[in-house]
Amino acid sequence: MTDKPDLGALFGATPAETFLGIEKCSDPSRAEGSSAFIGAPGATPYGSVGAYCRNAPDALRKATSSLTANVDRHNFDLGGPIFPTGSRRAVDCGNLPFDEADFARNREVISDTVRKVVGSSAVPILVGGDDSVPIPMLDALAATGERYTVLQIDAHIDWRRNHMGEEYGLSSTMRRASEMPHIERILQVGARGIGSAHTDDYQDAVAWGARFFTAHDIHRDGIAPVLDLIPEGTEIVVCTDVDALDPSLVPGVIGRTPGGLAYHHVLDLFKGAAERGNIAAMDFVEYVPEADIDGLGALTTAGLIAAAMGLIARQDSHSGET
């Protein structure tokens, strides 16, 4: 046998254009699901590297194509089907337009779409794209009048004032979040190795009140110390840069760094956040399909997105299961 076995054929899957084969949503202001997958190819890329994650949303959709016939089967990550009986399923809003030259317009499109999805009572799951795409998502949440805890899961702290003269790039995401009045708490999990941050950037973050749990901390102490800092009932935004995971799980990133988090570290952070408060928005960024190995990173990331959809379906007021 020379051809790679087709898992989708084994499971009876049919080709699908959406993540997990879920329903398409062409109007984000009418996103009638518990959550909405929003593909964001880019926002504010640095000129030196460009929009290097622009193909990620479609690659992650493709990674779930073999499971389209199995969505209703038992998912052991969740203890039941992704979407329990009586719950609203997620919807897929497709990919947002991306302009190579007009970065302000890219941010505006992301913010506007997130506001529409939130207004329709669905939880936005923004799938990038590089780590500049969460900035307009976070900014859009100001319109709700709520205050938020940001749970960032990332190998890097993203507290640069600017990088290469750009204030809205991927190295400044948490710095920009800290400047938003509706962001009251930032918990940062998974830092390791060397990134773009200088020591004074880290010191600024600590002075602001950000709390850090390095990858080593998590391997040594587990995730309980992180969850202990999430107040009961708070609104939570989970920002996941997939380079937080060990490169043995997600090799498809721009800068592989050993010693990353395990799949279940991240999954349990999602579960713990959902138990402590209300997941109001999520993003998954920095997956680079062209750097992946045999689709492993796509499979890992897609599994986490699917689990996140299931957790949100369970917290949704229309769900028959808590």
Automatic annotation (TrEMBL):
The keyword Transmembrane does not apply. GO terms for molecular function: agmatinase activity; metal ion binding. This is Arginase family protein. GO terms for biological process: putrescine biosynthetic process from arginine, via agmatine. Keywords: Hydrolase, Metal-binding. Belongs to the arginase family. It comes from the Bacteria. PROSITE patterns: ARGINASE_2 (PS51409). Coiled coil: none annotated. Pfam families: Arginase (PF00491).
